[in-house]
Amino acid sequence: MDSINGGGLGIRRNEDIALDLLKFVAGTSGVGRPAAGSTGFSGTSATKPEEYVNQLLDLYGRCLKAVEGKGAAQ
């Protein structure tokens, strides 16, 4: 069975590279992660899981554009 990555030559798809970039950026910046809870009153409401998903999907789209070289002149 043929491998997707070009027969083990180390070739990676842009989507895979963008996903790795997403993991790195999200992990280091805290995107898509709920804020740490605190004792007492809070002025902000809890963010819904759908909003976290939307943040991650938006970030993935930006990562994919960066990998493909699109949007660099914006």
Relevant terms:
mainly alpha, 74 residues
SSE map:
Layout: H1 14-29, H2 49-68
Helix pairs in contact: 1-2
Please describe the biggest sheet, giving its number of strands, its sense, and whether it closes into a barrel: none
Structural class: mainly alpha
Order of helices and strands: HH
Oligomer: single chain
What is the average per-residue confidence, as pLDDT, rounded to a whole number?
A: 77
Number of strands: 0
Radius of gyration: 17 Å
Distance between the termini: 42 Å
Strand content: under 5%
Task: Report on this structure.
This protein has helices at 14-29, 49-68. α1 packs across α2. The chain contains 2 helices and no strands. With 74 residues, it is mainly α.
In short:
This protein is mainly alpha-helical and 74 residues long. It has two helices and no strands. α1 crosses α2 (49-68).
